[in-house]
Amino acid sequence: MEKEEELEQNRLSYWGNTPEEEYYSTQGIKSTKSFFTSPRGLTLFTRSWQPLTAPPRAAVCMVHGYGTDISWNFQSTPIFLAQNGFSCFALDMQGHGLSQGLRAFVPSVDDVVEDCVSFFDSVVKSDAELGSVPRFLFGESMGGAICTLIHLRNLEGFDGAILIAPMCKISDKVRPGWPLPEILCFFARFAPTLPIVPTADLLEKSVRSPEKKAIARMNPMRYNGKPRLGTVSELLRVTDYMSSRLCDVRIPFIVLHGSADVVTDPEVSRELYDKAQSQDKTIKIYDGMMHSLLFGEADGNVEIVRRDILSWLNDRC
């Protein structure tokens, strides 16, 4: 029993101990990994997941959430999409996963937006097949906020967006009351990297399935510390800005949220849906589901969300 537990703790990937290339082959896809140098000289880790034989139907440019990375349970979604004909690309943002930077420190979300845009543009330019197919954004939680900012920066750059529990505004229900935000922002000027912001365990609040919770905890790249002052201050700034720009969103999008999410607020997704100028917009609120819709729920629930995303993509390709 102890030996089995030791093997489980030392698993290579979220799927177990099958080597990556062998696993991708069994899933009927191909995958690459490399490093990308951003315009500001930052070394960022990247991955792709692509159909094995047929030409891609579209490019899906993906952004992960705070404290996570693209090499563990995040992979389950791009693998699924690649199996259905979509070429997927993602990078570990600054301070996350295998990318350069202090762990979980995001001093400027605007810089992260520039990193993502530069990488996604380089992907399309390097592959002639991708130049003639639609391009979609995909973001989870903080990644959803970054995708929205990418759109607001370049209104014509993408053909649609898939936003999973996006952090487009900090709800009044979860935003710390005055004067805590002001105090945090003040001290962030002097010690931005200090990891002292009190918060609940986000994994406990995000993942419902006990089995998947255990798998998520095994991620060697997961950030387990308290949020850093500078990161929290920056997220407060950006979400305040975004809350004033929801009415400027024009991109076709689907926003998906669990009704039991206490990390990001489903009411904010409803507000995005109501205020956006997009002519093509869809909202899905899943009764009783939590924050991690595409991994943390029971397999049946994950399948429901995946199929809704796939159906939305199919209708626009």
What does this structure look like?
- The protein is of the alpha/beta class and 317 residues long.
- The chain has a single domain (1-315), classed as Rossmann fold.
- Helix content is 37%, strand content 17%.
- The chain has helices at residues 2-9, 20-26, 76-83, 109-126, 142-153, 180-188, 202-206, 210-217, 229-243, 266-275, 299-314, and strands spanning 29-37, 43-51, 58-63, 86-91, 135-140, 160-164, 253-258, 281-286.
- An eight-stranded mixed β-sheet has the order 1-2-4-3-5-6-7-8, with helices on both faces.
- Helix 4 packs across helix 5 and helix 6 packs across helix 9 (229-243).
- It is globular, with a radius of gyration of 19 Å.
- This is Serine aminopeptidase S33 domain-containing protein.
- Residues 55-295 form the Serine aminopeptidase S33 domain.
CATH architecture level-2 label: 3-Layer(aba) Sandwich
Question: Given the C-alpha coordinates, what overall shape results?
Answer: globular
Q: Span from first to last CA? A: 49 Å
Query: What's the order of the H and E elements?
Result: HHEEEHEHEHEHHHHEHEH
Mean pLDDT: 92
Task: Pick out the low-confidence regions.
Answer: 1-7
Organism: Rhododendron simsii
InterPro entries: AB_hydrolase_fold, Hydrolase_4, MAG_DAG_Lipase
Domain Serine aminopeptidase S33: 55-295
Pfam family, one: Hydrolase_4
